[in-house]
Amino acid sequence: MNYLNSLWIRFATFANSYLSQYEPLLLVSAPLVALFLASILQSIVCVVHEKGLKATILALFMNTIKLVPGVKSYIDAEKQKVVDKLNSGGKSKRQGWRTELPSVGMGAGVIDIMKDEKRKDVAWQGKCSGTVYIGGSECEGHFSLINEACSMFSHTNPLHLDVFQSVVRFEAEVVAMTAAFLGSKEKSSGGQICGNMTSGGTESIILAVKSSRDYMKAKKGISSPEMIIPESAHSAYDKAAQYFNIKLWRVPVNKEFQADVKAIKRYINRNTVLIVGSAPGFPHGIIDPIEELGELASSYGICLHVDLCLGGFVLPFARRLGYPIPPFDFSIKGVTSASVDVHKYGLAPKGTSVVLYRNHDIRKHQFVAVTEWSGGLYVSPTIAGSRPGGLIAGAWAAMMSLGEEGYSQNTRQIMDVSKRIQKGIKEIPELFIVGRPDMTIVALGSDVLDIFEVNDIMSSKGWHLNALQRPNSIHICVTLQHVPAVEDFLGDLRESVKTVKENPGPINGGLAPIYGAAGRIPDRSMVQDLLVNYMDGTC
C-alpha cells in the first residue's frame, strides 16, 4: 500500500510539473474540444456506415454546391418544371371543384351528379395492372354481391362490439379462414395463429412492424430498434420505419431478384428486431426464400414478417393445383407475422386486409390500451378506432361466396394468363422478363430500347402499367380482368415495341424522360423532394 501511495505521489508531481507550462484555460478547454471533435467524428462514421461512403460524399458535394449563389434557386426551378410535368393538367382539372357546402342540400339528386362524375373516370376494364381484381362488369355478378353486403352493414362499426356482434363475428371468421390456408392447421404453426382486419396492406405491414418492435423490446430490451429488408420489399416498411423511429437497412437482392439471405445476415446486430420476406415481391412477382429467412430469424431470436398481400389468396391454391410453389406460410418455423390483402385476389371490397401473428403474445403488442382518459377505459386493436363494418361484411361475403373451389378456379385462370403473357414476351426479341416470376406479376425490360418509351406508347393505347427501377422495367399484375384481354395486351405490346424501335425518342406528353432521369439522378434526396412536391400538388 505504501508503494502504491508513493507511486501515485510521484505521478501527480510529474503531471503537475509537466502541465504547469500550459495556461489553465487551455487545460480546461482541451478535453471539451476533444470531446466535441470525437462527437463529430462519430457522427461522420455513423452517416458513412448508414449511407455508404459514395452517397455521403455525394450528399456533401451537393449541399456545398447549393451554397453557391443562384445554384439552389436554379435547381429548385428545374425541380418545379418536373413536378409540373408530372402533374400535367392536374391543377386545371381541380378548377371548379367545390370548396364549400351547398347552401341547400341536393337530396337524392346527388346520386345523378355522382353518376355523371363516374362517367369521366378512365376506362379501366381489362387495361390496368392490378387495380381491379374482380372479373366482369361492375354492375353484376360478384361486384353486385359485395356491394349489397357492404350496403347492408354500412352503418356498423366493430368498435361497438356489444352492438354490432354480426360484423365482430365476420371479422373473426375472415381472419380464421385466411389463417387456415396459410398454415394455421399445421402442427408446426403452434396452433395459435391470430390477427385482425385492417384497411389495407400498408396498415397490416405497419401494425406488424409496430408489434415486432414492441415485442422485441419486451423480450430483449431493445430500445434502438433496427429492421432489415430486401430492396424489393414494399415501401410500407419505409413508412413504418419513419412512423416508429426504426432504423431501416435496405439490402440489395441477389441475381434472381430474391432476398439475399447472406447479405441480410451481415446486417443483423443486437438491435435487430425484424427481417422481411415477400411472397411474392411487388416489383417482379418473385417469392423470397422464406424457409431460409425463417431459419435465420429463429437462429437469432428475431421476428420475420412475410408480405403475402399479393400472394395470400393465390399461392395456397396454386400449390394445390400443382404449381411449383416454395413454402411461404406459418408452417415455416421463424415466421412471426404475415400481411394478406383480401381486397386483391380475395376479391373483397377495397379497404380490406388481414394481419396475422404466430401467437397472442406477439399480437398483444399491436393493441393500444388507455387507462387515464376522462372518456373512460379505452382499447383499440388497429390504427383506426372506428372501422367500417360494411367492408368487413363485404370481405366475409366475398370469401363465403367463392369458397375454396371459386378461389381455385380463379387461380387457374390468372396463372394461365400469366404463363401466356410470359410466353408472348419471350417471343418479342427486344424484350426480356425480369427474373423468373412465381405468380401473376410479370416484369419486362429491354437492353436495346427505352422500356419507358414502350410504356408511354402502351399508355397511349389505354394501358396502365407500373414503371419500375433497378433495373428499369415495367410490369403487369394479372387479374381476372385480363382473362379476356390477354391477346389484346400482347398485340399492343408488340406494336409498341415496333413503334419505339422504328421511331426512338420520347413522345409528346410522355413520361419516359422523367422516369429515366429519376433513375439516373445520383442525389436521391432530390428525387425524394420531387415526389413530395408532386404529392403536395395532387391531394
Protein described:
The chain is an alpha/beta fold and 539 residues long. Among the domains are: 198 residues, Aspartate Aminotransferase, domain 2; 135 residues, Alpha-Beta Complex (Aspartate Aminotransferase, domain 1), CATH 3.90.1150.10. The protein contains 19 helices and 13 strands. α7 packs antiparallel against α15 and α16 packs across α17. It starts with a helix and ends with a helix. The model has no long low-confidence stretch (mean pLDDT 91).
Low-confidence stretches: none
Number of strands: 13
Biggest beta-sheet profile: 7 strands, mixed
Q: Which quaternary structure do these chains form?
A: single chain
Shape estimate: globular
CATH topology of the domain at 187-384, by name, is: Aspartate Aminotransferase, domain 2
Give the number of helices.
Answer: 19
Distance between termini? 77 Å
Share of helical residues: 40-55%
Radius of gyration: 28 Å
Which structural class should the secondary elements be placed in?
A: alpha/beta
Mind telling me the CATH class of the domain at 187-384? Alpha Beta
For the biggest β-sheet, the strand order reads 1-7-6-5-4-2-3
What is the CATH homologous superfamily assignment of the domain at 187-384?
Answer: Type I PLP-dependent aspartate aminotransferase-like (Major domain)
The percentage of residues in β strands lies in: 5-15%
Q: For the residues shown, what is the average pLDDT?
A: 91
Could you say what the CATH architecture of the domain at 187-384 is?
A: 3-Layer(aba) Sandwich
